[in-house]
Structures are given as structure tokens and as C-alpha cells.
Amino acid sequence: MKKVYTTTTSLAIAALLLNGAGQSAQGIGLTSGMFSLFLECNNDGTALFLDSQNGWQYSQDAIGDMTDGSTYDITGMGVFQNGNEVFVAIGSNLPGTGAGYDRNVDPIFHGDLFFTPGGDNFQDSMESGNLYGIHFSGSSDSGAHAGLGVYQNVAAKGVGMNNFGHRTYNNYAAMVDSSSSNFYGDLGVNNSYFNGDGTGYNVISGGQKVEDDGFEMLTLDDLTAAGLDRDTVSGSEIIGFKFNLDAIVPPEPAPLPKDIGTLKGIAEGYGFDWGSQGWDEELAVYDTNIAETQEQANTYQGQADDYQAQANAHQTQADIYDTRSQTASEEANNLKQERNDRNSELWRAARYSPGGEANNVVKRERNDRNKILKQIDEVNEIIDEIPGQITDATNERDALTTKLNEVPSEAEAIAIARRNPNGNIEQAYEAVAELAPKKEAWEVYKQENNWDNLELPQKLAVQEAYGGDWIELRGDGSPAKQEQELTLFSQVLADFESEVEQDRQAEIQQYQTQINQKQNSIDDLVTELNDAQALKPQLEKNLENFYATNDLRERLEAVKANAEQEQAAIETDDSLNEIQKEELRAFYESDIARTQALINEVDNPEVSLDTLFDGADQYFNDVLRADAENSNRPIFDDNGNQEVYGPDEVTVQIPDYDEDGNISGYTTYDVAVEGTLKTVGTEYARLSEESQRFNRARRDRNRVQENNEIARDNELVAKQEDINSRNQALNNRNNSLAQQQEQINQKDELLLEIETEIAQVRDEAIAQERREQMRESLAAAEVENQKEQELEERFGVRTLENPGGIPTSPEEVIGAEEVIAMDVPEPSSVLGLIAAIGGGFAALRRHRQD
Questions:
Q1: pTM more than 0.70
Q2: Per-domain boundaries in the chain
């Protein structure tokens, strides 16, 4: 949205924005400033205020606000920046070749296009050397003697009186309807940009032609190709041209050097009293503090580095201990496997002792029973515990239901939320309470007056006639303040109440979700309880059937029968020698006897199956293992001879380890006597000894693992202590650096203050120099303007009573000049009137001869 200069609008409008100092024009934007244009006669004028929008920017001038006919009506202006090129289109009814005649019998043209890049008004911009002019017409009144194009450091002048027009803008405005807000395009008649009672500037008086300004006249086709909207600028005539943006971009002052000595020299060069400021002393203090805090930071950094080195050393040692721990763990597992291999052989020796097969049958039956008992225990646990869980879950569900029922209604929730609203909400409620009744009364009045079917002027008339306290529309049809406030505050309240309701619904949803979850949990528990209660009788029946149909006796009888068959087959087995047969006879005799003993226990009514089952493991350990350990049963080779211990069987080698846990050698232990006969008992003793040796070595590796883990953890603790100390040192360093940065920032602030003050001194000196440079050209322009003043005094100000007019032929110009030049006699003097007319024709003849 464009802003315009009015008596209530600040002149502090941002200057032409350069997106980065020192960039080329391709990187900058024509984002603010003012273009203005008046005809040479000041019969009409327009202005275009630039904003930051992209593309073409337009100003539409009021139509019909000219004097001397529509030929002198300016209709609009368009400006478009494309890179470093600025395109300008001027719409009016005045041809580019001009119209009418000035006092020099030259056509009247458009004046020069002026541009002010900053927020100052026209006069201040000109006096400070910030006025640019673009000479594009055939005006001979313009002082742009170097030809068409862009001029800088422009002094403007007014030539309205010389063109049979108006010396001041207000003289012109007084003769037309100036009530339109776009009387001067983007400006109204009352604005602070133009001085309406001063000189009506419309052409260049003096200035310097900008080299390489890129100026070029354009056709309508050229402008259309660049995107011009012909209808927006309107007018019967379109004048177009382009020039380089950098021709009207004020040059950026050279950046000040950062070196304080150079700054001091610059300041003193402008006569600035540097020494009295005390800056040198302040900067010296900052430099000292910065150096001291840097030294402190370096000391703390050294401490941090030392602590980090110590932490790294602890980590290295921790890694060593960790590796040793892992190696010890791996070796412990290897030793465990060696032990387990021998324990498996010991178990097999006991398992295949006499009675071992019968004991194994008892164990299998026991395991079948235990499976049923385990299921019964699980069911009983469910039956015992789940009712309490159901009760707890039900209580929790009911508590949640109570909370759900306590959630306030929507109206109650809003009422509660309103008790502690923030200031904006309270203000909104108060505003709506005040405005809503007025709005309701106004709406009734609107309906009574058929508001919806009215055009804007009619609506404004109805609104004006309304006696109530409500205004809905501004003059341009936009919502008025009351309407905007009611809409805004109503929306604030709607959002507030919507948020309250969302929170309420979220709370309801949360409780409902929790209630559903609890109910699902209750349902699952009830299902689980019912299933358990239904399953328990079946499991108890299974246990009952297990005992009722148990065939342990038959299984033991089968084991016994098999042993008897094996015993009988010994006598006919020719592969066995007599010693082997004797050993097997003794084995099966004992096996049959022990099996029969178990059968007898099954038959004994005083011994339950459970007693037999529960004693199976103890029987294995107390009887079978003891039998294997004490057995003198020989061990035969494939040839039927009793084996003897060879040299590789009488020792066992247990690994020795170095500090890192690697195997460094082996220790040999005797576990049998070479050449002695092997029996089940001697093998049991040998394997037991080896198992114990490996197990002791395993426990030793486990202790080494634990010790290394402790040592590793101690190193990590020490490392963390060093890390903490390092962090403290770094914190101290950072604090020192923060103090240093604070000093640097304060120094930079002082330097910025110095630069700002020196820049101000420099800029004021430059501005003063430019103003002084402008004085000569402004004085020359004032001489020209004085001529305008004299013409106005001579011919009078054009008014509705003294309308004057622009001559349309040279004869009218000469006639008007000569009539005014003579002391015109009273009309009652016929001779005097004839003399005046004759003098006019004589002047016309002289002009033609010239």
C-alpha cells in the first residue's frame, strides 16, 4: 500500500534502499523516493511515491484537474526497475511535440521529471544537492543545455508564468477542483512535499549531466514489451524513456577506515577536537583488559590441556584393563567348557552304573508329573491373584468415571476460564460487551433501509443519517474502526472459547481413553480368570489320571526284563572272554537287583509315587555317583584286555597366563599312574581331578576378569575426575574469554561511537560543502524565478475572475504581450483602442520579420 505526503505524514520516509553497500546497481532496488512532474505552464502536475513492491509502480492522477482544457491534463505515471534500467511512462493529453505557445512563441511542453531519493521534501532535497532531474522533452525553458538525460545536483526553477500558466502550485490548485486525494497522483493538494505557495518548480535551472546515464527515448511498443499497463497510466499520449538506475542513486560515502590512527587524522582534518574526547585513554584501558583476560584464558587453556592429557592416559589404561577383562572372560569360558566336558563323562559314568536305567525311567515319569503340577500352580496363582487385580482395576475405572462426570460443561468451562483471563481476553470481553449491542441496533437499522442492495454512496448516506452510535464503513468502503474492533475482539473471543472447548474435549477424551483401557484390562483379567477356573478341574483330572494310569511299574519291569535278557545273552556271546563275562554278570546282577528294589518301592503301599519321584535325583547322587566313584569294574579295550594308563593319560595341562591374560605356558599335574589298570573308579577319579583343576583355573580367570573390571572402572572414575577438572578449567577460560569479549564489545561500541561521530562530522562537512556548491546554482535559479515573480506582478495571478489562458496561435501571444506592454487606454477612448490594436499588429509583423 502506498503512503502519501500529507500534513500529518512524517517526512522520515526511508531513503532509496541499497541492498548492500558497495553493490552494483544490478543488486540494488528502487524501493523508495519520489518522482514528480509538472507541465511548463503548471496547469497540472503529478507525483509517484515509490515503495518496495516489484514490477511496475503506478500513480493515477485526478482526471480533469487542469486549467486551459483537457490538452493540459496529466493522467498518470508508471515506473519500473529492471536490473540497472529504470523505465518511465508518462500518460497525459499533451503531445510530445507540445501544444499552445509560451511568451517566446514556443510550444508548451512537459517540464522536467524530478526525483528525490530520500525522505526530505522537494525544497530541502534541492538545497542539499539531492535533487535529480530527467530532461526528456523539447522544452526550451529548461536549463538542461547538455541535452536529454539525467542531471544531478539540480537547481530547479519555475516557468509557469512564462508559459501563460501559474507561478505557484496553489495558484493552479485554486482554479480547479482540488478535493481529490490523488490531485497530484500519489499526493493530495495538502502535502508537505511541495511548497504550494512557493515557486512552482517544473524545469531544471542548472545541474551536471550524468555521464553514461543510459538515457533513451522509448516508444509505446517498447514500454508494452517491458510490461506497461497502458490503461493504468491512461491519457491520449504516452511518453516513455529509460535511464540507468545508478544515475539517480546517491553515491555512498566512502567507508571510514577501521584504524584508529587514521580515524584520528580524518577527524582532526575536519577540525574536530579529538584530544578532548578522552578516547585514547579509554581505548588503552580496553586494550590492557583484553590482553590480561587473554593471558588468563591461555593459562586456563593450558590447565585444560593437562587435564585432558591425564584423562586420555586414564582412558588408555582403562582400555588395557578392559581388554584384559575380556580376554580373561574368554579364557574362563574355555576352561568352563573343559570342565563341563569332563563333568559330562562323570555323569555318564553314574548314569550307566547298575540301576541307572531304572532311575532314568523314574525321572521321566517325574518330569511328566511335574509338567502337570506346574500348570496347576500357574492356574492357582491366577485364581488367587487376579480377583484382587480385577478389584483394583475396577476401582481405578470407577475413579476415572467420577473424574469424567466432573468435567464441566462447555458453558461452565468457559466461565471458569474467564475467571483468570489474561489482559487481552478481559479487554476483548469488555469491548464486545460494549460494541455488540450497538452493532445489533445498527444491523436492525440496516435491514430497515435495504442496506444490502445499496451502492457505496447510498450506504454512506444511510450511515450518515443513522442516529445511533455506530459507523461501519469509511469513505473508501473499507471497514471503520468500530467494525474492525468488533470483528477483531469477537475473533479473539471465538479463538479463546474454541481453545477452552478443545482443552475440555481433550480432557474428556483422555478420561474416556483411560476408562476404556481399564475396562479392556478388566475384561482381559475376567477372561483369564474364567479360563483358569475352567482349566483347573481339567488339570486336576489330568493329575488324577496320571496317578491312576501310571505305568511306572510296567516300565521298570521292562527295564528289568531287558537286563535279564542281556544277562542271559552273556553266556552265548563268543566275543567276550571269561573276565569280561564275569564283569558283565556282576553288572547285570546288581542292575536287576536295584531295578527290583525300585519295583518293590512301587509295590509298597507305604511309599508313594511322589516320594519315589522326589528322591530320584538324590538316588542318582547318593547311589549311582558313589557306585561309579568306588567301582572297581575294569575297562576293557577292543581285544577284551583291561586297559592300562599310558603316558598321555596320566597328566593334565592347565594354562598359565601373562599380565595381559594371554596363555604364556602350561602347568602339568599328575592325575593317574602310568601302567596301572583302568577301572570305572580310577577313571572317575582322574576325570574328577581334571575337572577340579580346570574349574579352579576358571575361577582364577573370573577373579582376574573382576579385578580388571574394577581397575578399569577406577581408571574411568579418575578419567572423569580429570574431565571434570578440565571442564572447570574450560569454564574458567570461557569466563575469561567472556570478560574479554565484553571488553571487546565495549571497545567496539566505543569505536562505533567514534566512527559514528566522525562519520557525522564528515557527512555534515560534505553536506555543507554540497550546500555551498549549490548556492551559486540556486542563486542563478532564483534570478530566473524572480523573472517569474515580475511576470506575475506584471500580468497578475490567474484566478477565476482573471482566468487568462494559453494562446493557441503566435498572433495571440504577440497580441497579449503588446497589449500588456502598452498602457492600455480606457475602452471609452476609441482612438486609444485603435492605437492599441494597431500596435499589436505592428508587433506581430516585427516578430514574423525576426
A1: no
A2: 42-247, 377-548, 810-849
